[in-house]
Design brief:
It comes from Streptomyces flavotricini. This is GNAT family N-acetyltransferase. Pfam families: Acetyltransf_9. The structure is a single chain. The protein has one domain: Aminopeptidase (3-Layer(aba) Sandwich). Helices cover about 20% and strands about 35% of the residues. It contains three helices and ten strands. The strands form two sheets. The chain has a seven-stranded mixed sheet with strand order 1-2-3-4-5-9-6, with helices on both faces. The protein has a three-stranded mixed sheet with strand order 8-7-10, with no helix packed on it. Strand 4 (about 70-80), helix 2 and strand 5 form a beta-alpha-beta unit.
Length: about 180
């Protein structure tokens, strides 16, 4: 198994079709792809025959918080092929994403949300849960917050290039506002 990373617009057609398949299995009816304004990169874990076992997207945008602007990245659309689950492929890919983002000098902060039962999965890859933190996605005119009724979300983070840590973000409302395509990355 090898991890490969592509700008979403440069994802080879055979891999793009497989990623779209995986996402359709996980989120039926969702439109594949991400907002180009978020400079999406796709990471895939592929076997020797070129079959995608797991995929995720990395999204990027500046985030203003506490009087500062951070160069933020987030994980989105993390999925493992249903027939490959339980083998550690998703964890391997998420850990590779964390390593890649930590090595990227253009990233100060990694922020994303997940369903509560998935918190241990992301913590095992090195991300930190931010208790009480709320990401506000969508747009200022059409916000979507992780504490909206019916959501059971937690916020996780990593601070590879920030001179601050979890304490500056714990218990905070963070205006992510990635737009209407990737409402909450």
């Amino acid at each position: 198994m090898r991890v490969r990373t592509y700008a979403e617009a440069e994802l080879p057609p055979d891999l793009a079709a497989q990623v779209a398949d995986l996402e359709a299995q996980a989120w039926p009816g969702a439109t594949p792809g991400h907002d180009p304004a978020l400079a999406p990169r796709v990471m895939v874990l592929v076997d020797e025959e070129g079959a995608v076992a797991a995929s995720l997207a990395l999204l990027f945008k500046p985030v203003r918080h506490g009087g500062r602007t951070y160069r933020a990245a987030g994980l989105s659309a993390v999925v493992t092929r249903d027939t490959a689950r339980g083998r550690g492929y998703g964890g391997r890919l998420v850990a590779a994403a964390r390593t890649a983002l930590a090595a990227d000098p253009a990233v100060d902060l990694v922020l994303f949300s997940c369903d509560r039962p998935l918190v241990p999965f992301y913590e095992a890859a090195g991300f930190t849960r931010l208790p009480g933190t709320v990401l506000v996605g969508g747009t200022p005119g059409q916000p979507l917050a992780t504490d909206a009724p019916g959501f059971a979300k937690e916020v996780l983070a990593d601070f590879p290039g920030a001179d601050t840590g979890a304490a500056a973000f714990a218990g905070a409302r963070i205006a992510l506002y990635p737009g209407l395509v990737d409402r909450l990355w």
